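Sample pair:
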Amino acid sequence: MRLGIPCLLALILTPLYGLSDEPPANASHKSLTTVTAETREIVAARLRNQAVIAGEFRQSRTDAKLPRPLESNGHFVFWRDQGVHWATTSPLTQQTVYRPDTTWQMDDGPASARELRSRSDDIFRDVLLNVLSFDEAQLATEFESRWQVSDNGNWQLSLVPLRGHLARAIQTVELRGDENINRIEIADTRGGALLLEFHAQHSEFTITAETCEQLFLYSAQQCQTKLTP
């Protein structure tokens, strides 16, 4: 379902199917102050050092054409430099794999995988992986960044597109977190928004040859190379 949202937003992670009676939750971040360069580097280094993160997500999209938000839930695995496995479990099941080289979508395991090759898929994949990887150098080529930190140690980063197709489609991308990125909110230029909230995040998920092939759809040979120290 596209509903006239700019193409980048329409392709965020997975299609949404359910309708929620509740508006997206807003996290509380009080007493925000500008982040010093030292604090910013501490936060960035902490996020960059996370090789694997697994957890659960809640995804909600609002739009002027919708009577109430579209909502879905599921779980994800982020593998630094290799991709994100995004599995929607309700209201319907669907899996999307965002890798640096391509994007796959599947409804019933690897055998059902189909490659998504549109320019919009490629653009969003690059933005998503750069955000989750916290690749500041890459993000700086497309966004102006505005850092803030709260008195309880939580941080907030607002990304404002600098030019081109991103500026035409997106007003802001806002990240919030502590030890992890807990929330990503994307506001489009037409008054719509997409909210991603992450829960139960941990770094104990182990990437094996089997999960490399099943979740990220790499070949056995590729997995052997990627998992060899």
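Helices lie at 7-10, 37-48, 119-133, 136-140, 164-169, 209-216, 220-227.
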